[in-house]
From TrEMBL:
GO terms for biological process: regulation of glucose metabolic process. GO terms for molecular function: ATP binding; pyruvate dehydrogenase (acetyl-transferring) kinase activity. The lineage of its organism: Eukaryota, Viridiplantae, Streptophyta, Embryophyta, Tracheophyta. It comes from Solanum verrucosum. The keyword Glycosyltransferase does not apply. This is Protein-serine/threonine kinase. Keywords: ATP-binding, Kinase, Mitochondrion, Nucleotide-binding, Transferase. Residues 29-186 form the Branched-chain alpha-ketoacid dehydrogenase kinase/Pyruvate dehydrogenase kinase N-terminal domain. Belongs to the PDK/BCKDK protein kinase family. GO terms for cellular component: mitochondrial matrix.
Length: 277
């Protein structure tokens, strides 16, 4: 049976609740703010209460956007499936009672872990939805569909924020956290170490694909540290080096000249850190 639009398939009360929460202003959260949630049962309770209030706002906004996409993208089965995942999560969060004590927090934490798992396949499912649209409308030049690209940029950025909120809250409950870690956040992360690990991972992909890979030379202060999420930086640097290695390898594949090394510079400023390849 074909899936229907939200307004057609759900009771009016739920549709209005999604609209109400989607109109609320979401709260920006800094890494510093997230780090303050760790360290005590009281802080964990505050974290749970914040996530309980904040997630429905962010998720409702995504439901509304998924209902109003251009070019008929909202009606594609894959996109409707994604919408239903978000809607199920909205229901779960809104039906969960007020969090008052440690037991409430622990039960809530298990629930949001399941929500995170439910959304694991959102990215490939959205890609499938776009593919379904392309198949139905081959006359479209999708490079020019600015509205779709803008939506996907917003959607994926929001998804990162939602998963970060959930993942950070869940990680705060780890009974054996790594040294200098508050949830996902490493308070003394060395960008050089992360860049080195990500570069080696990217070179391994290149070696497997082409049989060889350019060297990666990394420059920067080995004593530089700052609070950040290592997995996020690893992912960004990995993609950067992977693309650079592929470009260098393909450029010099049939050349008598040796492939030049990839140079990565990590520079710390007064208020920021720049990583350049």
């Amino acid at each position: 049976m074909a899936k229907k639009k939200l307004s057609d398939s759900l009771v009016k009360e739920l549709a209005e609740e999604v609209k109400e929460w989607g109109s609320m202003k979401q709260t920006g959260v800094s890494l510093k703010h997230m780090m303050n949630f760790g360290g005590s049962s009281k802080n964990l309770l505050i974290s749970a209460q914040f996530v309980h209030k904040e997630l429905p706002i962010r998720i409702a906004r995504r439901v509304i956007e998924l209902e109003n996409l251009p070019y008929g993208l909202s009606s594609k089965n894959a996109v409707l499936q994604v919408r239903d995942w978000y809607l199920d999560s909205f229901r779960d969060l809104r039906s969960y009672p007020e969090i008052k004590d440690k037991n409430d927090d622990l039960k809530f934490t298990q629930m949001v872990k399941m929500i995170k798992v439910r959304h694991n396949n959102v990215v490939p499912m959205m890609a499938l939805g776009v593919k379904q649209l392309k198949k139905e409308r081959p006359q479209f030049d999708y490079k020019d569909l600015k509205e779709v690209h803008q939506f996907l940029d917003r959607f994926y950025l929001s998804r990162i924020g939602i998963r970060m909120l959930i993942g950070q809250h869940v990680a705060l409950h780890d009974p054996n956290p790594l040294p200098n870690c508050v949830g996902y956040i490493h308070t003394k992360m060395s960008p050089l170490e992360v860049v080195r690990d990500a570069s080696e991972d990217a070179r391994s992909i290149c070696l497997r694909e082409y049989g060889s890979a350019p060297e990666v030379n990394i420059y920067g202060d080995p004593n530089l540290t700052f609070p950040y999420v290592p997995s996020h930086l690893h992912m960004m640097v990995f993609e950067l080096v992977k693309n650079s290695a592929r470009a260098v390898q393909e450029r010099f594949m049939d050349s008598d000249d040796d492939a030049p090394p990839i140079r990565i510079i990590v520079a710390g400023g007064l208020e920021d850190v720049t990583i350049k390849a």
